[in-house]
Automatic annotation (TrEMBL):
It comes from the Bacteria. InterPro entries: DUF1631 (IPR012434). This is Thymidine phosphorylase.
Amino acid sequence: MPSGLHPDADHLHPTDDLPDHHSLAAQIRAIFETGFGQLLQDLFSRIDDELFKLADRADNSGLQTLYFDAMRQIRRDQAGMRSRCLREILEAEEHFWNPADTPSAQPEDSGNPGLTLLENDVLEIELAVTHAAQKANLLFQDTLGPFELRLAALKGLQGPPLPPHPFTPEALAHAFAASLTGQPVDIRVTLLILKLFDRHVLCQMGTTYRQMNQLLADHGVLPDASLVFKAKTSTMPEQHRPSSAAHVREDDSAEQLSDLLHLLDLWKRQAGNDASQTDGQHFDPGEVVGALSLLQQSASALASGEWRPGAPVPRLKQSLVEQLTGFCPDGELRRLGRFEEDVIDMVSMIFDFILEDRNLPDPVKALIARLQIPVVKVAIIERSFLAKKTHPLRALLNALAQAGVGLEPDDRKDRIVLKKIEEVVYRILTEFDEDTRIFAELLEDFSAFIEGERKGVKAMEERTRQAAISQERLTLAKRAAAVEITARIEKRPLPPALVSLLLNAWKDVLVIAHLRREKDSTDWDEALAIMDRLIDWADAHDAEPRRADAGTGEPEAIRAARERLENIAFDPGQLHAFFKDLELWHLSRGNLGPTPAPANATVEPCEIEDILIEGMEDAQPAAQSAPAINESFVEQARNLCAGDWVEFCDGPALPFRAKLLLKSRFTSRYVFVNRRGMKLREIGLHELASGLAANTIRLIAGANEPLLDRALNAVVDTLACSTEQSHASATS
């Protein structure tokens, strides 16, 4: 079955119609030797610089010696390595054109088949080579596809299968890896060298591939191959498409990305920035990624605090085009490809949103803003990134932002988290080239750090929560005691001695009994009953003679009240004084008959409430003096949930952020804590609503929503709204 990537027979010119392949093959070889040879020469300078930097940063003498020895070894043998690499590629090229004249190499029989020959180091090298080749195939697929078709036509092949040509990324990567064989260097150095080869050679081959491809087209070898290739790849069944792009379909990411870019295209057209022209040469994706890597290196050298809110943000597209243009030969004009330009525009809009987001503290914004270039690179290398919520880089950016929501840069412990965020950003800028696996590693490390911190935070939050709940239970108990005492005082006039006892002593018995109510409800009922018997006793007209010398004649109500007060360790001196006053009053009442209590002895219920609550309502403004608050702000305060963040701007100090830890259903009190779980503020519903209305308390909306999701949604809303408005204006 045809693969769909290869031309049908009627698309190929007969061999007789094509120029002599020997002449064209020689010209192709010359282009390759010039381009690849120069990249290879530049590579060894970069290897030398990188090994020197690693040796300089090594944290022990053994590692430093390893890198210095490797640097000296590579310096000594770099000419031989270049020669061996080129020789293997050119021998394969000769065999490609003249297979009968060059004997194929026979593999050595080791006596052990398959993977048993491969040790761990060899497997790691093979994985690195395969990854580099796959990435280059994806970056240059628009050039390599037509080039393969033209080489096949030049050889006179009338259809598939096509033999692999010697200039494929796989062939180049394997040839270079083979040139390293026998070098007495550590596997870490070998993998580093392969990584640099991937970045500075394979990903820079776009110009060379394009020149070889254009040479064949200019000489009449399938001049429409590019159109044939694009048509074939766009209509072939999914299972026949290149595996390097198969992951784009995962989770419908391709459709979502297409919708995003289509919306961006409509917005550009209506804004007069139509970039749909297809004429002229484009920079290859590999060249774009390479130029972005150079810009990223410059960004990594910046101080972490260089960006400040309000300062102009450098426009990435302009810097990138200037960087790419500097690599072009004099007179050659090229432009960014449509996809690359759209990705840069989309990512720029996302980062514009991030920089304007009031949810993030300025230092966190400054750090995340420096990741714009790596994000663009990932969006070009892995096209599913923008539409795939589970991508490790998206998850990492969301985690960094979430960790920074409540940070106070002046707080010593918060600076530890800020330092960790800075460390992650620095590692991305200095270590990420095109291997996106680094983001999963960084995400795992950062998540472990945050989880370790969260354990202490959860413990502190639980302590704060329990303290707030205990305070709430105490408040409810005091209110319950106030209600019961007030009800009895309102029912009948009571003597000052008894009122004083209830207010200053028995209220403590009731409060403690109420706190124990969940465990023993009879304790509360008994305390109320004793209070009622005490009042009835004091109100009796026919009392028996008071207390005998031994105390055996003490009334039951007095005895029960005394025992309960002693059980709660009430002050003995005060206790004796209260009962002495009460006894004297009752004796005088028994001798003189019932007399009304003095007018000034009556205590109003509202005063009792104030005394028992002990100022718990001081924080709440009096209802009659409070200004009217719009009901929407009251509703907003009621709808606040545990975990929501707010910013307090109501004091002379700088604004600070706090998270709602607890909202009482009974007392309408709101307890706010900092990101470490320590209590910062406790206010009532009325005060919270007033602050929202006066803008002295600001809700941090969406603080718990992933940053990239919010940013993308905002960008989509902006594009869609602008498009709809333009359409409405055009039709009105």
